[in-house]
C-alpha cells in the first residue's frame, strides 16, 4: 500500500467527525473538515460550534468498573480522545455521571480543531461524493444528515431507504429474566431456519394482571414529538399505548396474543395474554420485547414493564422509543474497517457516528475515534485491526458489523455489557473471599471491565 500525502476529508463536525479529525492529526495526517452549520442549519443544533450537544448535557455514567458507558469513557481516555478530554475539562457536578457545560465543551472542541495546523475547516453542505476526487473520506453527518447527502448514500448503497424513523422496543438482559415464571417456546413449536423450536421467551399474564397492565399503560406519561419529528404511524409498528387506546383487547389480539403456547410451569392453565421476547444479539445475552415499541417516557417504562411476570427484576439494555433517526444498514454495507463495501477498493468511504447505528454522544464519538484511526493507518500505508470484541470499542464495531442475528432487524443501540462476550459471575473476590450471591452480577461487570481495559491497551499499543 502506498503512503498518501493527501488529506483525509471528513464530512460533519459533530461528535464523531470532531473525534475522527483529532485522531487523524495526532498521527500527522492532514484533514479537511467539511461542516454545513454556519451555512445551513439542522433542525436540532443551535450553534455552528463543533461537537454541539443537541439535547442533554450528559455523557452518562463515568463509572468504568460497573457501567458499560463508563468503561467506554475510560477506553477513549486511554486512546487520547479529544471529546473526553474536553468533557473532563468542562465537567459540571452530576453525581456519578460525566456532565458538561455544553457551551464551554463545544467551544473548546471548536477552538482546538479550528486552530490546528493540520486541519482545514470548510463550511459547506456536501451534497454528494460522486464528483469529489477524494479517496479517503469519513462521512459523519449524524442522525440529521442533510437530504441531498442522504440521497447520495441511498444511491451508492443500493438500499431501498435509509431508516429515517425509529420505532424501537425495549431490550432486556437475559440474565435478569426470571425463567421460573417465563419459558422458551416458539408459537406452535414452529421451527426457525436453524431448527430451533424454542426461539422465544414467553411471559404469561392472567386476566387481572392484564387489566392492571393496560391501566398502567394508558395512564403512563408519554413523550411528545417535536414538530419536526412528526411521523405517520404505520400499522406494522404502532406504539403499544396507541394500540391499547384503540381498545382494551387490542393487544391480546396483537403482540400479546396467548395462542400456540403452553406454559410448562402451569400446563393446565391457559394464559390470558403472553408477552414474547426475541433473541437480539448473536451472543444470546440480550432479548427484545416483540412488538413493544413505545413512546412511554423512559422513567415510566421500567415500572410498567416490570409488572410483567418474569420481568419483575428486568434490567434494560435499551428502553423503547420513537424518534426520527438516520442510520445505514451497517451490517450489510460496512466492513470491519467501517468502509462502504460498495465503493471499496476504488475509494475508502468510511462512516462514523450515529449514522452507523450506534446511539448516543459517547458511542458516536467512539466510532469517530475508530474511523479516524483506521483512515489514518490507511493514509500512512499501514493497517490497523478492529479492537478485540472484549472491549467496549470492539463491542460497538461488532454490533454495527457482525454482531446482530442474520435476518434480524438492525437497530441502533447504546453500549451495554450485553454486547461484550459474557464471563461467569465470580464466586470469590481477588482475596479469595466469598462474594454474596446478590453481589455477583456487579462483580461480573467489574471483571468484564478489567478484561476490557487490559485488552484495549494491547490494541492501543498497535496504533
Ligand atoms: C433531537 C436529538 C436529541 C438527541 N439527544 C441525545 C442525548 O440527549 N444524549 C445522547 O447521548 N444522544 C442524543 N442524541 C443522539 C446522538 O448521540 C447525537 O445526535 C449525536 O450528536 C450524534 O453524533 P454524530 O457525530 O453522529 O452526529 P452530529 O453530532 O449530529 O454531527 C453531524 C454533523 O454533520 C453535519 N452535517 C449533516 N449533513 C451534512 C452535510 N451534508 N454536509 C456537511 N455537514 C453536514 C451536521 O451539521 C452536524 O454538525 C440525540 C439525537 C437527536 C436527533
Automatic annotation (TrEMBL):
EC numbers on record: 2.1.1.74
Domain MnmG N-terminal: 8-381
Gene Ontology biological process terms from the UniProt entry: tRNA methylation; tRNA wobble uridine modification
GO MF, any single term: tRNA (uracil(54)-C5)-methyltransferase activity, 5,10-methylenetetrahydrofolate-dependent
Compartments reported by the entry: Cytoplasm
GO cellular component: cytosol
Chief location bin: cytoplasm
Reactions performed catalytically: uridine(54) in tRNA + (6R)-5,10-methylene-5,6,7,8-tetrahydrofolate + NADH + H(+) = 5-methyluridine(54) in tRNA + (6S)-5,6,7,8-tetrahydrofolate + NAD(+); uridine(54) in tRNA + (6R)-5,10-methylene-5,6,7,8-tetrahydrofolate + NADPH + H(+) = 5-methyluridine(54) in tRNA + (6S)-5,6,7,8-tetrahydrofolate + NADP(+)
InterPro entries: FAD/NAD-bd_sf, MnmG-rel, MnmG-rel_CS, MnmG_N, TrmFO
Pfam families assigned to the protein according to its UniProt record, in alphabetical order: GIDA (PF01134)
Domain of life: Bacteria
Main function: NAD-binding protein involved in the addition of a carboxymethylaminomethyl (cmnm) group at the wobble position (U34) of certain tRNAs, forming tRNA-cmnm(5)s(2)U34.
Matches recorded under PANTHER family: GLUCOSE INHIBITED DIVISION PROTEIN A, METHYLENETETRAHYDROFOLATE--TRNA-(URACIL-5-)-METHYLTRANSFERASE TRMFO
UniProt protein name: Methylenetetrahydrofolate--tRNA-(uracil-5-)-methyltransferase TrmFO
Organism: Asticcacaulis biprosthecium C19
Amino acid at each position: 500500500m502506498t503512503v498518501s500525502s493527501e488529506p483525509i476529508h471528513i464530512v460533519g463536525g459533530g461528535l464523531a467527525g470532531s473525534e475522527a479529525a483529532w485522531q487523524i492529526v495526532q498521527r500527522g495526517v492532514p484533514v479537511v473538515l467539511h461542516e454545513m452549520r454556519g451555512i445551513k442549519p439542522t433542525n436540532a443544533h443551535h450553534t455552528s460550534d463543533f461537537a454541539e450537544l443537541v439535547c442533554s448535557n450528559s455523557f452518562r455514567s463515568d463509572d468504568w468498573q460497573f457501567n458499560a458507558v463508563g468503561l467506554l469513557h475510560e477506553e477513549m481516555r486511554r486512546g487520547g480522545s479529544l471529546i473526553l478530554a474536553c468533557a473532563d475539562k468542562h465537567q459540571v457536578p452530576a453525581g456519578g455521571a460525566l456532565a458538561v457545560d455544553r457551551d464551554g465543551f463545544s467551544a473548546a472542541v471548536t477552538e482546538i480543531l479550528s486552530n490546528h495546523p493540520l486541519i482545514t475547516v470548510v463550511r459547506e453542505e456536501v451534497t454528494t461524493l460522486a464528483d469529489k476526487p477524494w479517496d479517503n473520506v469519513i462521512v459523519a453527518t449524524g442522525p440529521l444528515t442533510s437530504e441531498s447527502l442522504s440521497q447520495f448514500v441511498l444511491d451508492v448503497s443500493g438500499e431501498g431507504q435509509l431508516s429515517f424513523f425509529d420505532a424501537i422496543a425495549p431490550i432486556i438482559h437475559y440474565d435478569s429474566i426470571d425463567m421460573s415464571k417465563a419459558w422458551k417456546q416458539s408459537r406452535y413449536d414452529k421451527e426457525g431456519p436453524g431448527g430451533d423450536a424454542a426461539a422465544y421467551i414467553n411471559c404469561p399474564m392472567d386476566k387481572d394482571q392484564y387489566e392492571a397492565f393496560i391501566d398502567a399503560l394508558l395512564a403512563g406519561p408519554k413523550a411528545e414529538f417535536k414538530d419536526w419529528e412528526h411521523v405517520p404511524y404505520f400499522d406494522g409498528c404502532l406504539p403499544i399505548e396507541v394500540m391499547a387506546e384503540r381498545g382494551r383487547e387490542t393487544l391480546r389480539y396483537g403482540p400479546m396474543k396467548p395462542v400456540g403456547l403452553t406454559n410448562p410451569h402451569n400446563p393446565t392453565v391457559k394464559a390470558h395474554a403472553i408477552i414474547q421476547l426475541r433473541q437480539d444479539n448473536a451472543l444470546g445475552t440480550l432479548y427484545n420485547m416483540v412488538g413493544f415499541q413505545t413512546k412511554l417516557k423512559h422513567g415510566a417504562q421500567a415500572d410498567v414493564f416490570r409488572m410483567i411476570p418474569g420481568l419483575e427484576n428486568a434490567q434494560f439494555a435499551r428502553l423503547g422509543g420513537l424518534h426520527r433517526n438516520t442510520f445505514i444498514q451497517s451490517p450489510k454495507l460496512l466492513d470491519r474497517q467501517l468502509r462502504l463495501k460498495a465503493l471499496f477498493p476504488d475509494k475508502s468511504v468510511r462512516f462514523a457516528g450515529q449514522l452507523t447505528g450506534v446511539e448516543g454522544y459517547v458511542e458516536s464519538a467512539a466510532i469517530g475515534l475508530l474511523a479516524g484511526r483506521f483512515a489514518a493507518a490507511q493514509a500512512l500505508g499501514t493497517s490497523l485491526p478492529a479492537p478485540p470484541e472484549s472491549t467496549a470499542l470492539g463491542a460497538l464495531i461488532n454490533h454495527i458489523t457482525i454482531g446482530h442475528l442474520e435476518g434480524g432487524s438492525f437497530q441502533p443501540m447504546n453500549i451495554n455489557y450485553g454486547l461484550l462476550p459474557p464471563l461467569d459471575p465470580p464466586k470469590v473476590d481477588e482475596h479469595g473471599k466469598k462474594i454474596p450471591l446478590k453481589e455477583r452480577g456487579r462483580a461480573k461487570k467489574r471483571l468484564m471491565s478489567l478484561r476490557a481495559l487490559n485488552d484495549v491497551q494491547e490494541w492501543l499499543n498497535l496504533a
